[in-house]
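DUF3611 family protein
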Amino acid sequence: MNRDGELAAPLSQGAVKAASTLRMAGNIGFWLQLVFGVLAAVLLLLAAAGLTAAGDTKTIQGAGFSLFCATGGILALIISLIFFFRYRKIAQLIQYGDPAIRPHKKSTLQAIKLGLVANLLGMLLAILGAESFVGVLWQKLSSLPQGTTIYNTSQLPQPNEILLVLANTHTIFCHFIGIVIALLLLDRLNK
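Predicted structure tokens:
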């Protein structure tokens, strides 16, 4: 019986497995990416606020591209979350939906591939953001004179600058989770 109490066409064993796999992967991916994504977004906001409050114009100018990429990575993560939520809905449609509107295997695989592309793009942006800001930090550290005592600690990397790198690495981890789950889904559903 479906949710409306009507008799539905019996599901094949493959459809039942596909629905449970999609539901489980959707739940795991959604919640893991949500928790770590919120952490990455909070770190990014703290880093951006700290960079502008610090007023070091040299660091802020170098951080612009990194902030842009990190923000793009977070936006791609939001898109990925939407796809993981969609996987759960697809599972419900397969299991309880009207046979006339059940999603086909081809459209389900297409949705997973689009989610995978969102994660790959987000990971690329986060890697570019982390790499560019590590370059800014390297430039800052390499300009310090070797073998002398530093009295002006503003020349050293500040905690808010490290937060930006940490926000990018958390975003990379979130997208890695999404990529792994999407690849597992593609493998399971193509059998």
